[in-house]
Each structure stands twice: as C-alpha cells, then as structure tokens.
Amino acid sequence: MLKLGVYNTLEIVRERDQGIYLCDDDGDEVLLPNKYVPEQFKIRDELKVFVYLDSAERIVATTLEPYATVKSFAYLKCTNVSDIGAFLDWGLEKDLFVPFKEQASKMRAGSWYLVYVYLDEETNRLVASSKTNAFLDNSLVLLSPYDEVDLMASHPSPQGWNMIVNQKHLGLVYGDEIFQKITPGDQIKGYVKKVRPDGKIDLTLQQHGFRGIEPNAEQILKELEASGGFINLNDKSDPEDIKEVFQLSKKSFKKAIGTLYKARKIAIEEDGIRLIE
User: Fold this and answer.
1) What per-residue confidence (pLDDT) applies to 63?
2) Could you tell me which residue ranges the Conserved virulence factor B first S1 domain spans (predicted)?
3) φ/ψ (deg, to 5) at 271
4) What per-residue confidence (pLDDT) applies to 208?
5) What is the C-alpha to C-alpha distance for residues 219 and 180, in angstroms, rounded to an integer?
6) pTM recorded for the entire structure
7) Which terminus of the chain is more solvent-facing, meaning fewer CB atoms within 10 Å of its CB: N or C?
8) What average pLDDT does this structure show over 209-221?
9) How far is Cα 102 from Cα 198, in angstroms, rounded to an integer?
C-alpha cells in the first residue's frame, strides 16, 4: 500500500508520455511526472520518492524533499490565507493546508509557525496543526538522566524554553541554563537532567558533570586556536563575557579550563588563557 506523507521505495514498471509509473509490493501504482524523472533509468529500477496529493487531490510521487514528513514537527512559513484555512510552504509544489480549527492563533501570510504534520483520516489529506501540544505525549517517557536527545525549540515560558524532545515529548530547559540564542524551530542537541514522576522532562543543553568537561574543553581549545592562541578570559572574568564568547556558564568554563590546565594544554594568566604549543 502506498504511504502518504512519507518516502516510499518503489519499482519503475512502465513509461508513459506524462512520466513513469512506480509500483509498490501490493501492486499499487503512482505517477512520477516527467519533471522528476531521472535522466537515466531502467524498468524494474527502484526509486525513493515522496508520495502526497497534488492540487487535484490525486496521489502523486516526487523526488523533491519536503521540509517535514507525516507525524513530525517543522517550522514553516505561511504563504497564503484563504476562507478555508492557511497554507504553508513545505518544499513541494502544493502547499500544506492548515484548517482554521487547527490554528493555535490566527495565521498570517509571511509569518512562521511550528506545526505538526499528520494524515487526516476523515479526508485522507495531509494537513498541519499549530496546536502542537496535542501531539506530544509524556505519559510514558523512556528516558533517563544523561541521555542525549534531539530538541526542537517550541516556545519560551517564564521558566525558560519549552522543547519538543525526540519528536515525541515536551520538555523544559530552564532560563538560567541557557547560554545561547534560541528561536522557535531551532534544532539542537540536549541532555536529560530529570524525568519527574508526572512525566515532565527537565533538560539541559550542557552535558552533566564530568561528562561535559571534555566537549567544553575541546570547544575552548578550538576558540583559542581560532584566536591566535590567546583569549582575554579566565576564571575571574565576568559570567556574561564568558557566556558571550563560549556559550557556557562560568561554572562549566572554570571546570573546562581547569581540565586543560591540568593537562598542560593552556596557561591561565592574569588577563586571560593562553594556548601552550
């Protein structure tokens, strides 16, 4: 069965004036229009294509790569608003539809929105929703402290930044642990600090304890090399200056330069740190 909204690996079965027809293991066929047909191909070759509905609501294949697939989150630009809903650019010829009932706030052309892409079972259409919390589930969180996770920035809160965790859960990075600029839709690596009994996930963008020293030290070494071997920051520097240069807290910075000092990689001087050749 052809799967809408995802990549399908299909077999080329025949060529026609409008393009080539591809077939899955169940015998279901879909057209790949001429504009996407590779220059060289043979019948029985396999192609990886994205399958969706064209403007006439017909199933069609494309070799274009959308910005999101079904059951995933993405940060997309609104291209148009009509009397039935909004439309988002997701990298394909036909824009992605967002019904009014699925808009957390009224969408406007030219603005960007974090949305979830899904298949509407009633209409069999691919649609999006900006009511993203409805598609996140923290009832069963199979994560442990120190686990590395993929994060997508959702929205700020008084406590910090709400994050989508591994495209499944909702988590929070507290504001006093953020040392870099974050905007909605940013995709970054993070680490689990704690999973609370109610399923809420506390996150950090820095590795914990000794786990964080090595990558932080490596980052400092790279900055030193790029700066000619000297940076006018040390363990007595202002935390804001450290944050601006290294995106680290002063505590993490001190641990990292301490490790580098003990390894005789750097010298800590009165006015900064110096790389030892």
Assistant:
1) 96
2) 4-63, 76-129
3) -110, 10
4) 67
5) 14
6) 0.78
7) C
8) 74
9) 27
Structure tokens at 179: 């040392």
Q: Which residues sit opposite 162 in a β-bridge?
A: 155, 172
The tokens for 214 are 């090595």
pLDDT tens per residue across span 23-76: 999 999 999 999 999 999 899 999 999 999 988 889 999 999 999 999 999 999
Q: How many CB atoms lie within 10 A of CB 276?
A: 13
Assign 3-class secondary structure to 13-40: EEEECCEEEEECCCCCEEEEEHHHCCCC
User: For residue 140, how many other CB atoms are within 10 A of its CB?
Assistant: 8
| 264 phi, psi to nearest 5 deg | 60, 35
CA dihedral 43, 47, 49, 53 (to 10 degrees): 20
The set of long-range contacts for 90-95, using a CB threshold of 8 Å and a minimum separation of 24, is 90/66, 90/117, 90/128, 91/64, 91/65, 91/66, 91/67, 92/50, 92/52, 92/62, 92/64, 92/66, 93/54, 93/55, 93/62, 93/64, 94/52, 94/53, 94/54, 94/55
Residue with tokens 């169940």: 26
